[in-house]
Amino acid sequence: MEKNILIGGEAGKGIAKTTILISKVFTKLGYYVFNYREYQSLIKGGFNFNILKISDKPIYSHENSYDVIFALNQDIINKHEKYLKEDGFIIGDKNLKGNTRLLDGASVSFGNDASFSKKMNAPFLQNKKEGNLIGIDVQALLEKTKAPAKLGNDILIGALAKVLGLPVEPVIEVVKNAFKKNFELLEATIRAGYECVEPKIEFDKPKNNEEKYFITGNEAISAGAIASGIDMYIAYPITPATPVLHILASKQIEYDYMVVQPENEIAVACSALGASYAGTNTMIGTSGAGFSLMAEALSMQGISEVPLVVYLSQRTGPATGVPTYNSQGDLKFAVNIGHGEFIRVVVAPGDAKECFYRTIEAFHLASKYRVLVMILGDKHVGESNYSFDDFEESKIKPTRGITEPCEDYKSYLITEDGVSPRSVPGQGAVVKTSSYEHDEYGHTTEKGDEVIKMNDKRFKKLEKLKEEIDTLVPVYLHGEGRKLIIGWGSTKGAIVDALKDLPDFRFLQVSYISPFPMEEVKREIENSDEVVLVENNATGLLGDIIAEQTGNIINKKVLKYDGRPFTSNEIVEKVNGAVK
Predict the structure, then answer these.
(1) Domains with residue ranges and CATH for the chain
(2) Which of 190, 316, 391, 537 sits 20 to 30 Å CA-CA off 376?
(3) pLDDT by residue (tens digit) across 189-236?
(4) Which H or E run contains 497?
C-alpha cells in the first residue's frame, strides 16, 4: 500500500507545518512516511509544496503522481493537477481566491476581485476534471466554531483526515501537542472539518502499528553532534545547511555547548581551528558557496593537524545557482578542498539514520587521527523527513583524544602510525602549531629532510585510518541481482525503493568516498554483467573517482541535474533504458 499526497501553496501559508502535522498523524498510527520539500528562494508567494509518500512498508523516496492534492491556493492546482491519479482527489477551501489562471501557457494575474475573476471565467477552486474536487467552506466553519482565520488550515487537516479514512482522535492529539494553546478551538476546528466530508480513500492497516521516528537528515546530524559531545558549532546561515544552525542553537543550553554565528564563512573556518586547537569538540556547517571561502583555512587544518568536522550540504550551483534546490555537484570539490597534499576524509550519508551514525563517526575519526572529516550531504537528504522503527545506540563513543603532555612535549611527534599525542594549551607544556611546515616541536622549518619527514608522518595515518573505516562499513550492498547500480548520498532512497521493480539489479552505495574503498568497489564492478552509474549531477563525478581509483570506466550513466532528486519510477525507467 502506497499513497502520495501533495500539500502546496504559496510561501508563508503554513505548508511545512501542515505537512509535518499530517505526517505525524500517520507515523503515530504506525505508517511509514517520507516527506519531500520543494520551495523557491522566496519569503512569501511562489509555488511551494511538500510530497508525502505513505506506506505500510519502509520507504525512502517520493513520487510525482498523487492520490490527493491538498491545495492552499489555486496555482498549486493549475501546476499539479495533471499529475493527479485518475481516482485521486483535490481538497481545499472552496472560497479560495485563485489569483492566477493559466491561459495559453501564460500566468495572468486577476488580483483578489471576485467579480473580475468571475467575468474572466476564473471561478474559485477550479479544476479540469469533474467529480474529484472536494471544496470545504472554511469561512463558514470558522464562523461556526468562532475560530480565527489562522486556524483555517486545521479545518482542512480535519477534512483531509476524514477523506483518507483516518480516525479523528490522533489528529487532535498531534495538533494539540504541536501548538499547546487554544485546545478547545483547535479541537473544534478539526472536528468541524472532519464532520463536513465523507471518506474517499481506504488505507491498509500497518502490521507494525508502533509509532515511528520521523526525522530529517539535518535533525539527525544535529543529534549525532550532540551524542558526540560537541562543544562548539560555528556557522554562517546558508541554505540548505542553516537548519542545523537553528536546531543546535535551540538546544545549546539543554546540552551545554555553544553555537556561534560569526560575520562570514572565512571567520567560521578560522575560528573553528582556533577553538579546536584550544581543546573543544568543534563542528562547522556550510553549503558550496561558503565552502569555497573556507578552502584556505581547511588547507591549514592539513598542516596543523587540528581536528575538525565539516558539514557540507550541497545545493545547485555554480555560484548562487538555484539556492533552494538539490545537487550532488560538489563531490570532487570536497575530496580535493584546499591546496597541497593532505588527508581529507569524506563520508556521504544516504538517509537520516545514516546522517546520525556517520556524524558520530566523523567526530571520532577527526579526534582520533587529527584529520579533517567532511560529512557530505545535500538539500534532499538534509531537509527530507524519513521514518524508522528505531535508532540503535551507536557503538562508537567519540572522545577528544587529548592527553597530558610529557616533560619534553612535541606537538608533532613522529610515531609509528603517524598520529601524534595531542595536548592543548593550559596543561603545563608549550603546545605550538603553525600554518608553516614545522619540526616535531612545531617550530617553522624549511629544511628539505624535515619537510619530507612531516609529509611522511601525516600520510602514515592513512593506513590505520583505512583499517578503521573498513570496520565502519564504507560501502553498502542492497539487493542480489547480477547487474549493478552504483550511487552515493541522497540517491540511495529512490534507488532502494526502485529495486523491487529491478529484480536483475543490486545497488552498491558508496558511503566513504575519501579514503576511497577501492577493493570493494572494484570487486563489485568486475563481478557484474552490467554497471549503471546514478548521480544527481551533470558529469558523473563519482564515476570519475571510480575510474581514477580502480581503472574501471563506467559508460552507462543515469544523471539528473535539474535541481530535483530522483523518484523511484525515474530510476526504474532510466536504468532499464541505459542497459537496453
Answers:
(1) 2-195 (3.40.920.10), 214-388 (3.40.50.970), 475-579 (3.40.50.920)
(2) 391
(3) 999 999 999 998 888 888 888 999 999 999 999 999 999 999 999 999
(4) helix 491-498
